[in-house]
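Incident review: delayed structure delivery

Summary: a single-chain prediction request sat in the queue longer than the usual turnaround. Root cause was a stuck worker, restarted by the on-call engineer. No data loss occurred. The affected request and its eventual output are reproduced below so the record is complete for anyone auditing the incident later.

Affected input:
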Amino acid sequence: MVGDVWDQVYLELPGGTPVGEVKRQALAQTHVKRDPSEYVLKFRGAELSDESRSLADSGLLPNSALIVLSRRRRPVR
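Output delivered after worker restart:
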């Protein structure tokens, strides 16, 4: 799920894929133009801060639900 556009993205990636690549691909598929470093990737509410780790090393199983959120919260008016 990419929070900026509230759109779900389905990716089939091997367990050796770096976490940062998942975030980059999800943003690209939803046509978000901002820099990927402005976003965080979360699994079960916790940020996956080391984006160089692989999916398997991060404890993610196939079909795990992730969310990409803006690093900075936006004010609500």
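Verification: Strands lie at 39-43, 46-47, 66-70.
Action items: add queue-age alerting; document worker restart procedure.
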